[in-house]
Design brief:
Shape: globular
Distance between the termini: 58 Å
Mean pLDDT: 89
Largest sheet: 6 strands, antiparallel, barrel
Low-confidence stretches: 4-18
Radius of gyration: 19 Å
Structural class: alpha+beta
């Protein structure tokens, strides 16, 4: 009987450990648009549970989409303060939608709330990578969006680093990805590789990575 009780206790302890999800938290997002599509990028940090670069195509209710597009096309900073959720479940595909408040500007700084309790649905995941703060800066994720367009995403590295997302013309097909090295040590305004032209920054963050 004693052994049965001990076994039951161990099962309970193990279940409790599995149930505790260290990725639960408030995972802010930035929104941007390319070719009439809206994308969301998790606001990463150099370490901890937010040390993840995660980008997905987002579906918003029609009325919010229409009203946000002028801001996004003008590259105005638009962020989302979401409800608390598990980033692990979002990354694994078990969480396919969440709600949040949309801000013009950064919701943790001087941003102003525009809409409350808007539902974002995950259409497709483009990037899902952990941050490695020991690697050198200058590496890029390249993500094919179709229509001769790519996203160029700086691979966050050793501090001081930066989170930068740009779009560029390329010959990648939809879903094609690669990782490239460059001589970039800081945010780029032009791109040195001839396979990508007319690079335009959609989002840039340096403060969180000093």
């Amino acid at each position: 009987m004693k052994n049965v009780f001990i076994g039951f206790l161990l099962v309970c302890i193990c279940s409790a450990v599995r149930a505790h999800d260290h990725s639960m938290g408030l995972h802010g997002m930035v929104l941007f648009s390319v070719d009439e599509r809206i994308y969301a990028s998790h606001l990463p940090m150099p370490s901890g549970k937010h040390a993840v670069q995660f980008i997905f195509e987002a579906q918003l209710p029609t009325q919010y989409r229409a009203q946000l597009m002028p801001f996004l096309k003008a590259n105005t900073l638009v962020t989302v303060r979401p409800e608390t959720f598990s980033l692990n479940k979002l990354r694994s595909g078990h969480l396919t939608q969440f709600s949040g408040d949309i801000f013009i500007g950064h919701f943790e700084r001087t941003g102003k709330m525009k809409y409350m309790d808007v539902t974002l649905q995950v259409q497709s995941i483009l990037l899902n990578k952990p941050v490695s703060a020991s690697q050198h800066n200058g590496q890029l994720y390249t993500l094919g969006l179709g229509n001769n367009t790519c996203l160029l995403v700086h691979k966050i590295g050793k501090s001081p680093s930066f989170d930068q997302i740009a779009k560029a013309q390329c010959d990648y097909h939809t879903g094609q990805t690669s990782e490239l090295n460059s001589s970039i040590n800081g945010p780029f305004t032009t791109f040195e590789l001839t396979d990508f032209v007319n690079a335009e920054t959609l989002y840039l963050e340096t403060t969180d990575f000093k």
